[in-house]
Amino acid sequence: MKTSIPGRFRRISRRHFMGTMQQFFCATDGQLNRLASATLAASHLGDDSAAANDFDQTVRLRIEKLDRIIRQHPDDAPAYVQRGFARVEYRDLQGAIDDYTQAIRLDPRNVDAYYYRGKVYCKQGRKQAALKEYDEALRIDPNRTDVYVTRAALRLELGDREGAAEDFGRARRINPDDQVPQSRPK
To answer: Do residues 172 and 148 lie in contact, with contact meaning Cβ atoms separated by under 8 Å?
Structure first.
């Protein structure tokens, strides 16, 4: 069965949309679970506006839940990373950057904060800033294949075929079982 994705979310892949909804299934809050189910049901039935509204409401509730956690535990860097991710889903890119930055202030070795802040910079067209974030993430943890693959794709987009091939090669050496695209400079 093909899933219909709301019009304003067509920029994200079906797999990403479904993956996001699955994250909400894991939430302990019953209301989040019901909304996620309603979103998927509406999406399967082709009711794009209902799915979009439910999706927005689900993300808002997730952000509110993380707001409560952060108020109770203001030094919880992973909570800021999670809220940053939710803000990206809600299309609040500056709010996401602010959360990732706060996570880095609290834990300068938080690889996810650098990685996801880089992804937001990339969405904003700030490609060089994104590269710096990926570089820092890999300086902290040189075994993150996801960061190598993301940086390789960006390098390829920027015309650095040799750098991209190097990053893809490193990712493959770290985890040979991963499906890492092969890229060779011409």
So the answer is: no
